[in-house]
Amino acid sequence: MNPQTPGLQETLLYHFVPARLQSAQLKTRLGNKLRTFEGNDVFVEEFNVQTPFQKTTSKLFVNGCRVRAVDLLCVDGVVHTVECVLQPNFRDDPEKLFGDTA
Q: Is 63 exposed, middle or buried (CB count within 10 Å of its CB: 0-12, 13-18, 19+)?
């Protein structure tokens, strides 16, 4: 890693969980923590979201970040993409609202 980018390695390792979990398996772990390679936990949650056509659908969130694409199978694991950068201190601030990733 480049020594001029402190925290980059920790941030990247925080995006990986040492388990092959597909979206259906993630849903069975709702409200639970998953330990990352970085050593901290991520939180998996499912919420109902209103679509533009007034249809309600359930979506997965990890640390308040919406999961965009799920179950991209690879040789070394399963990839799920999120729409923001996951931050290890998501639950540390009691004033932080769900989905507040700032």
A: buried
